[in-house]
Each structure stands twice: as structure tokens, then as C-alpha cells.
Model the fold of this input.
Amino acid sequence: MEGVILLGIVGFILVRLLLPTDKPGPTVETPPATQSGSPTDLKPVPTPVVTNNKPTPNQTQTNLLGHLPYDVAPASALAPVTADGSLKMRPVAASKFQEMQAAAKADGVNLVMISAFRDLKTQEQLFFGVKEQRSQDSAKRAEVSAPPGYSEHHTGYATDLGDGNAPATNLEKDFANTAAFRWLEQNALKYSFEMSFPPDNKQGVSYEPWHWRFVGDRDSLETFYKVRN
Done:
């Protein structure tokens, strides 16, 4: 009888050891709330913002009626192109034009310069004065003439050319039908001159076969092309 009782006690102890207990685990305390109501006072880390600091053409160049702004060349930076000194350009452009004119003459072409550097006062008259004379609105006038401060002629690198044997075509689209224009098409680039406003140009300026510019050194190239395409 005692053996049976002993076995019962041992069995009871084993069952108690194997069964899970209801003893609670360790208590995890919640940090006291801050004034903002959040468990901690940690500030969120801001998301980095990636920006493109490269300026766009519209940020660096202001377009006015299809024309871009240009600084006016100082008088000290100009040299006479014609014998009477009435037409002037930057020295390197003046020298190259004279070479080009001599080459055209050797080929039997009478290439002449009609205009070159213009100051603000002259450009004001050409834009506003002629606009009033012809009763043109600003947009219409800008198709054939730049507002003051926006003319390539201010730079000392631009020029209007003509055919001395066909003066009636001066500053007219018919200049494209002259021997001088055909010669320029074939030879102007040899002297670093290019047409500023060919048909369907990006600026939307009317086709001007007579208007050419020098782009034969760093300054002239940057003047017309830097941050503009």
C-alpha cells in the first residue's frame, strides 16, 4: 500500500514539472510620453532633396520677341573696316572680312559691307523709329529688326552684306539671288563667317540672307552659342 502511495506522489510531481506555468514574464516598461505625445523626442531625418543646379537657357538668357540679349562692345574694342572708318567691327572680325572681300573680288564678285557695329541709340531708331513710320506692332517689327540691347550688331561681330553690282537687293531677300550671296554660301565659312538667320532658324527671326556673323575665336563663339542651343 505504501508503495502505491509513493508512486502516486512521484507521478504528481512529474506532471507539475512538465506542465507550463502561469507565471508572468518580465515586464517591459513603456517610456513616458513627451509633450508631443510621441514615445521619444527623436526628430525625423529629412529626406535628401536632389537638385539640378545647371541653369537652363531660360534662366540665363532672356528672349525678347525672338531675339537674345547682347552686351554692347566698347569703342576701344572696335577697329575700322572701311577706309572712311564709318563701319567698325572687332579687330579679328574686321581683318577676316577684309580677307574675305579681297578673295571675292579676285573671283569677280563685288562683296560690300552695308552695316556692322551698332550702338544702342542707332538700334533704338531702327526699331522704334521705323516701327512708327511703318505703323508696325512690336512683334511684326521684331521679325526683321532686333530691339535695342538684343541685336547681334552690338557685339562687333555681326555685319550686313550686299552685292555692289545689285544694290537694289540690299537688305532684301532677293539678295539670295545675287552672285555675292552664292559666293558667300560657298566660301564664307573659310573665313569663319556664318549666316545668323537662315530659313526656319530656332529664334523664329525672318530669313535674312544678308546678315552674317563672325565666329572665328573663343569670344565670338561663346557670344553666340554659350547656353543658347
Summary: The chain is about 30% helix and 10% strand.
